[in-house]
Amino acid sequence: MTPPRFARRDPAGLPAWAHGLAAVGVALIIVPPLALLFRSPWDTFVDQVTSPSSLDALRLSLITAAISTAICVVVGVPMAVIFARHDGLVVRVLRALVLLPLVLPPVVGGLALLYTFGRLGIVGEHLHDAGIDIAFTTTAVVLAQTFVALPFLVISVEGAVRVVGTRYEEVAATLGAGPSRTLWRVTLPLVAPSLLAGLVLAFARALGEFGATITFAGNAPGVTQTAPLAIYVSSVDDPQAAIPLSLILVVISLVVVVGVHSRRRSTAGAV
Question: For residue 242, what is the DSSP state?
Fold first, then answer.
């Protein structure tokens, strides 16, 4: 009697159609950057990337994204911990408002910032009377980037804080540790991988911010023109001329994401 033949199964136990759909999704993400790579004007690549305008835009993007990410960490971590540890109505409403930029069109966010910190804004008019103008300055770039990037860090850290629970914090409290010491020595080390992931997501989102920036900060070269804005300006006249700087942003993003992913894997392995 011939023994029954069994179809070879995937080691993970997934059906073949799942692999097919996953392949479509991977192609949807990978093919567009490869298209930039294939269509790049390599004969003028170095000249375009090292032009004064491109270098100024890239430098401004990196500096402002780093500053906005630091602000996200300083204000976002306490917010995330509070959202994770409290569940009242007020906290739920505030959490929904804080996460609003995740789904809000960036241009709308930029307009909201303009009517808040602009010369006629509810806050900006008082700052203007004091001789402080924020709109259409480099500070406006940082605020726009922080506005859109902050929710990414908050949601990453909040989820991790909820998962680790309060057991270790309660033990630290019984040993005499105060709230600040517990936060620094217990809570944050436990959620360090998620904090790092949220930090990278915030930096990447700030680096690629366009809509809120151009609405609230404008597009002044050397002052508010970040790399995405410089790419947009170049693409209007000559789409191919925008490819070199676009590839630079792709490479920076790829290096950051791969580096953090490797770090998280090594941390998980050590644990």
Answer: G
